[in-house]
Amino acid sequence: EAGYTRGPEGKLRDRNGRPLKVTLTTWVAPHISRAAQVLQAQLQAMGLEVDLSQSDAGTFLAKLPEGKYDFDLMRTTFTDPQGLSSAVRTPGRWNHYSNPKLDPLLDKADSTLDVEQRMAVLREVQKIVLEDGAIIPLFSDAFMIAARREVQGYKFDGAGTPMYYDVWLKK
User: Of the candidates 146, 134, 140, which has an alpha carbon nearest to the alpha carbon of residue 159?
Assistant: First the structure.
């Protein structure tokens, strides 16, 4: 509870005795909206007041660099661990995170061709990022898709996202 106290009703309070309240900011999409509601309920069950602020993806992404939010729920998929570099390299994806210990490690990971050496460095990067709380992975939203034999041309991109551009039905 990081030094916070609880009021008689069980809610967390700040050092001035006021209920601790935060806003979770995210965008409107079915899987993200459901995840945000679950996270809100879980945090409220712990005694933290959580308001949910959702907007369309464009508005949400435009607000992130301003830093006028408590925390956000983001869905991010990288086809290569190098994506971690763009998220946490100083000054961080939206200029809100920096750890000088990470940048040389990221440089090494991004320039190392040996897969095992690279993964060892990236494990160290992940440990630091998790210890700092810069990114807190919550879930993975894997796609589960089925199609009848007649559905043809169905493909996936490098991240496993379904691509519908050339889908057709065989008669």
Answer: 140
